[in-house]
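testing teh design pipeline on a random one, pls ignore if ur not involved
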């Protein structure tokens, strides 16, 4: 496990661990120079080294978990704080993706909309590997459900600067022998809107905490 993956692993609460697919992805990011520091000093990993400094690529980035963010969603219920850890930004509006331990002990990838932009919340993809496949599709942001059936380039404000994650896509398909769909639709699970009733297990857990 490389330095970046280790930093994220150390930031997780005792009830969570990094899925091995994410460890491999973080190690790959570090090996190609796609790990660095933001202007605010935050340690981040992205799907392409150019995304650290240039526009046109993916805005999604990974970072060590911050327990203060978890409390904003769960309140101060200490008995459940160890089940959730946001570790990625999915959009410039502040939406996030994170690790969540479900009632069966399985580590799931969940989406946490910012509320000021995206309002999508729930289990994001069927597996951590599917979340990496979603990244490889090539959207600049992953927080907008209205865009999931569109091609990534169709969602760009400036199509002339669009850069697909070619290197990351190549690494993922060769490492795991998976295919990458042309849109997000086959990979993203149905999610709820913040504050609305839902049968999604993650949404039910959040509702029980804040009821």
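output:
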């Amino acid at each position: 496990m490389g330095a970046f993956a280790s930093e994220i692993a150390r930031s997780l609460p005792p009830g969570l661990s990094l899925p091995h697919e994410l460890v491999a992805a973080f190690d790959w990011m570090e090996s190609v120079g796609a790990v660095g520091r933001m202007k605010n000093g935050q340690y981040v990993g992205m799907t392409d080294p150019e995304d650290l400094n240039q526009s046109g690529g993916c805005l999604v980035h990974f970072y060590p978990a911050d327990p203060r963010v978890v409390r904003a969603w769960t309140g101060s219920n200490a008995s459940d704080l160890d089940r959730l850890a946001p570790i990625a930004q999915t959009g410039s509006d502040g939406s996030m993706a994170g690790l969540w331990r479900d009632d069966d002990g399985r580590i799931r990838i969940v989406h946490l909309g910012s509320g000021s932009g995206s309002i999508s919340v729930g289990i994001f993809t069927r597996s951590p590997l599917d979340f990496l496949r979603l990244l490889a599709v090539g959207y600049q942001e992953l927080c907008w459900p209205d865009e999931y059936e569109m091609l990534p380039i169709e969602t760009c404000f400036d199509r002339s600067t669009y850069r697909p994650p070619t290197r990351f896509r190549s690494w993922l398909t060769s490492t795991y022998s998976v295919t990458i769909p042309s849109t997000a639709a086959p990979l993203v699970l149905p999610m709820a809107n913040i504050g609305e009733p839902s049968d999604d297990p993650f949404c039910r857990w959040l509702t029980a905490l804040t009821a």
